[in-house]
Amino acid sequence: MVGARVRRQQVAYAQGRGLSSRRACALLSVARSTLGYVSRLTARDAPAVAAMRDLTGQYPRYGYRRIRIFLCRAGHIMSAERTYRLWCQAGLQVPRRRPRRRVATGRPRPVPAAGANHVWAYDFVFDTCAHGQQLKCLTVIDEWTRECLAIDVAGGIRSGRVIEVLAQLVSVHGAPRHLRSDNGPEFVAGAILRWLHDAGIETALIDPGKPWQNGADESFNGKFRDEFLTRQWFRHRLDAKVGIEQWRRHDNEVRPHSSLGYLTPLEFKATGAAHVTEKRSPALPARVQLEEQEQRDEDTRLTGVILQ
Fold it and tell me: Which domains does the chain have, with CATH numbers?
């Protein structure tokens, strides 16, 4: 069984092969009245399709589920089924990525933290207990103060639990302006995007394959693994939760951070220290600084060539 639109296309193809409309309809078992039918859905769906195209140009790697959330925010309320139908009819499916070298996408550079509670970053770290039980740790840090706000430990953490952890942190510390993460399924789920929108928190997703854009949390996770996880032997998950919480407190209250002038995160936060070497945010990833320096050198070189 095919739809009326496809049957009309079949009749048109038969007519192109030299058959009359009457003969083509008889052979294909198509009612002649369907040939002159004009769908009213096209005019009704035109504004939503136009909004879809605009969002696709702005977010070229987003699928129809995430685009639907943006459409709902803009006033185009529709079901997931209707969104998918319009998405396919407009030919907006996201093509599969080929294993090739990535090129610049033209996205703006990730916003650096400019103060406490400005940008939070979160990611996952994995480990196992002595008997093979999996540990999944959700780490949340403040990029400016480098304070580890939470490390949630469980066997599996989905979007619902991520929302619970963030809601607890917001109730204690207040809501940040931006929340930086990679494009993992737990972080781009529709439930999280809706919760962040209701909480007034903007997402700062990094580009795929560029973990240095989330350098503050990647650095913390490396330190977490190097200084604690690889040195511990957890008997079970509860033992891991207790030990990890103790290490989190030690990192915030005891361990000096070179990026903070060898203050602890709580000392840095309490004194309101905002002076950083070269007046830069302590959260700005080193790789971003290197890219900026390379760009300045390239601009200088090109300027010299033009002047010559």
Answer: 4-89 (no CATH), 119-287 (3.30.420.10)
